Amino acid sequence: MPASSHPDPDRPPRSQPAVDAGRAARCTEAIRDIAEDFVVRAEELLHKTHNPDTPATDLVVTVAELSQLAEEAAAALVVRQRSQGKPLKELTPSLGLTEDRLRKEYNPQAVDLRLASRSRPRPELPASRLPEDTSGPPSPKNRLREPANAWPAP
Asked: Is the pTM of this model over 0.70?
């Protein structure tokens, strides 16, 4: 096994990055989906924290889901960056990894397959679990319970 991370040491590295517009578009769409899921889970966490009786295990499950969504988003962003032919160097400070580590960690084909087969973490927060506030006219909190104002199901 060669010591180099390059698959074929006799072959020179590419002179330009590989560009895959289709993959970049799929990653962009996946990032949007992940962002929507993230908002739903973050709102769920916010609602759970308003109830002092919520067990820590419930909060940890939601935090773990947020963490997983963040990792999926990072993978999609790295692969999108590569698929657009842009340097990974721009992402290294925020992700805390070297360019080489980003290439190894986020293989485009593997990430593409994971994104294509991803499912929503869990159904949206049921309206019955939202904090009750029935005093006065509909407030932003109460509007969440009204079907006309609810987020569309994915």
From this structure: no
